[in-house]
Write a structure and sequence with these properties.
8 strands; 56% helix
């Protein structure tokens, strides 16, 4: 028979250590679970853009003035998408606004707050340890026996103590709270990207609107200058008896009417200047770049994201997803609050009559305790809190679906607008050329006495309206092109000046 060595006896200290290790292993095993639903990244919607706005790689918008745009489904969007308009003034304005915008700065600080709150929330998984030192002077009544070992009625006690407490996360409620805090941090991260996209998009739109108003003001001023020359000629002809007073009065009325249209246009131009200054974080007295429509180059190649990628590119959809995630985690927190809770605590310390005795063995004291608690009756408070958390979860899910629907609609509308703008610009360009030819013919006929002043006024007015409409059409095409980039998310995932969110960049 093979002899086995005798098992060595386990000492009391080792037995206590093994028991403690077993208890910690049991708590770790129990802490591996977490009550409540687990959140998963939503799947992409099984949808396509509307037929009118469903581009293919060969689709092109109608060309006007030699400019045609081609859709490229699946193409990526650059982070600095506004540079595709090739306007140095716009680039300088956007860079200045990104560095000075108070709204963007506020969004950055909001993200820092959320990040620090998430880091602070993680502390609940660790023991809480605090230290205290309490020197106290006592006097005991002679009715009682003397309390200290010195048998004196008057004595001093110096107490130094550590307070250690630990809440075992048996049901994962604490981790669900950390998860909710992390989702709120992600929401602030995407709010920052939304603020970035909103600022850059509004700046581009404001610059284009400023250029369109400037073109309209210049057109009206040119027409007014021409009408003043005609009025001076008509005045001389009145003196020679070659024109009636009625024709002269009609000419003056038309001039006054056109001058009146110039006032609101200049007011709108000033307001647009103020808006650009506000977006850039400046005061209204700051100079505004002199934007013109000719200073913008229409982007020829337009990237179009697929609906499956849109949910990962739109900051507003990502904010809604993070809110849904936070609400999901709060359900777990509410469930865990209704289950038993284990609280461990320890208080090692020293108590001595003098400071010197605190460094002498024998004056130590300690207390170790564990408390298991179970809510029994709170008037239905915990039950209703869980129901509220579940209802909020369903609300957040519905809000996410609404954000996805709105995002797909926004892109579809932008695609339709870009296509319609190109067609409208072709028609408006042809109308402007025809009106200009008509005006030139009317001037020649007037010079040879073959046309009346009324014919000249009508041709001038038609040309004015055609030029204003053409300027508006050019601005609309530029504006809707910028709106398409903005509706697709603006390429924020390609930025290198911002850390990625907790959930990572879109694929």
């Amino acid at each position: 028979m093979t002899a086995f060595p005798a098992r060595a006896p386990i000492s009391g200290r080792c037995r206590r250590l093994l028991c403690g290790a077993g208890a910690l292993a049991l708590l770790a095993d129990l802490g591996g679970c977490a009550v409540g639903p687990n959140f998963h990244h939503p799947s992409a919607p099984a949808t396509q853009f509307a037929q009118a706005g469903r581009p293919t790689r060969t689709d092109s918008t109608a060309g006007a003035d030699g400019q045609a745009q081609t859709f490229h489904p699946g193409a990526d969007i650059p982070a600095r998408w506004w540079e595709l308009f090739h306007s140095p003034a716009l680039d300088r304005l956007v860079r200045h606004a990104l560095a000075n915008s108070p709204d963007l700065e506020a969004a950055r600080h909001a993200l820092r707050v959320a990040q620090e709150n998430r880091a602070a929330q993680a502390g609940v998984l660790y023991p809480n340890i605090s230290a205290s030192f309490n020197p106290a002077r006592f006097k005991t009544s002679r009715t009682y026996s003397p309390v200290p070992n010195s048998n004196r009625w008057l004595y001093t006690v110096h107490t130094a103590q550590l307070n250690i407490s630990y809440q075992a996360d048996i049901w994962g409620g604490l981790r669900r709270g950390i998860e909710a805090s992390g989702a709120q941090r992600d929401a602030e991260r995407y709010q920052l990207e939304a603020a970035y996209l909103t600022l850059t998009g509004e700046l581009v739109q404001a610059a284009i609107a400023y250029a369109a108003l400037r073109a309209q003001v210049d057109t009206v001023q040119d027409v007014i200058s021409s009408q003043r020359q005609i009025l001076e000629s008509a005045t001389r002809q009145i003196a020679l008896g070659q024109m009636s007073d009625a024709d002269l009065a009609q000419q003056r009325a038309q001039l006054a009417q056109d001058e009146a249209t110039l006032v609101p246009l200049r007011q709108q131009l000033s307001q647009q200047h103020d808006q650009i200054a506000a977006l850039a974080g400046d005061m209204p007295d700051a100079p505004t770049p002199d934007f013109t429509l000719d200073g913008f180059t229409l982007p020829q190649d337009l990237p179009v994201s697929l609906p499956a990628r849109l949910i990962d590119q739109r900051p507003d959809v990502k904010v809604a997803e993070a809110g849904w995630h936070a609400a999901c985690a709060q359900v777990g927190v509410a469930i865990a609050n209704r289950l038993p809770n284990l609280q461990l605590s320890a208080q090692p310390g020293l108590a001595a009559a003098s400071i010197g005795q605190m460094f002498v063995p024998g004056y130590g004291q300690w207390m170790v305790a564990g408390m298991l608690s179970q809510p029994l009756f709170q008037g239905g408070q915990l039950m209703h809190q869980e129901r509220a958390a579940r209802a909020q979860y369903e609300q957040a899910a519905a809000e996410y679906r609404s954000a996805v629907v709105a995002a797909v609609q926004d892109v579809t509308d932008s695609l339709n607008a870009v296509s319609a703008d190109a067609t409208a610009l072709v028609a408006d360009s042809e109308a402007e050329r025809a009106a200009t030819r008509g005006l030139n013919i009317a001037r020649a006929r007037l010079a040879y006495g073959d046309a009346s002043r009324v014919d000249m006024l009508l041709a001038t007015q038609t040309t004015l309206q055609a030029r204003v409409t053409l300027a508006q059409a050019r601005a609309a095409r530029l504006s809707d092109t910028a709106g398409l980039f903005q509706s697709l998310g603006g390429g924020w995932w390609n930025r290198h000046d911002a850390p990625p969110a907790h959930g990572g960049w879109p694929p």
